[in-house]
Design goal:
Length: 331
Amino acid sequence: MKKKIALVTGGFSGEAVVSLKSAAVVEKTIDRNRYDIYKILIYPNDWHHQTASGEKVPVDLNDFSITLAGEKITFDGVFNILHGSPGEDGKLAGYFDMVGIPYTTCDALTSAITMNKGYTKAIVHDIPELFVARSIQLFQNKVENLERIQKELRLPLFVKPNNGGSSIGMSKVKTPNELKEALDKAFAEDDQVLVEEFVSGREFSIGVYHAQGKTTVLPATEIVSSKEFFDFEAKYSPGVTEEITPGRMSEEEVNRVNRIIAQVYQKLNCKGAVRIDYFLEHETGKFYFIEINTVPGQTETSLISQQVRAIGMEVKEFYTELIEEMFSDDL
């Protein structure tokens, strides 16, 4: 008998549009011989399933069920592809824990912590061979911050919302005159902002997941952007960024990166597939942790999809492993 899987998408943030694109790919790729898929769209005060005829069927939040043609549909599990809040910050995970439905992504605590870039860096900073850029975490947009930042950090700087994704609200600051505008832009997206020193290095993004009793680190993708940094346009506009999978690394670098990534995954108690961004510093080759994405994109050209295909695996098989893992005894 086929399992009933809720494919959760939408969201409360600007990343909802990316989430819908990811969900469309997952929906058509998942093995329909094994699973019945029901797309559930989650927006503020509007959780619903849309039928083929366009009818909006509300979700019963008491048990996360829907009723179709008089039949109550309950779900065996959730494939979470909702980027940003509430799918990536722990809110949905906590809800699913309470109603007793397994899901493909990290638990509530890990999701909440990793959504906060500053807190994540504080947890992983002592992993051997891992480095983090010097940074300041700001909780208010006060004029005194300008002097403190210039006193404690060295230009150029990255200014970014601490809990955001898809590089929304992020700026690269090269001169002191640009700092106030960058802070205003970041604080418009979040009430916490991270300001960190720029690391000059090659940028990579790498997927890692746990299934069938083992943690698999996928081949890294090297990001070569024609923009100043890998911002929203660079991530989602064709031709702006060159993505090389597997990325150009020596054997020593690949082995070292894989060691570090596996430890990050374990230390943060991750579940399912996550994507970790990092630099290899130009002068030293040191590994600098940037951030982790616990609900990585699943569009046709997404980095995770590229990396899965690079190891000779079909994306459909990858999705099956993620789904079956949430039902395994070791979760």
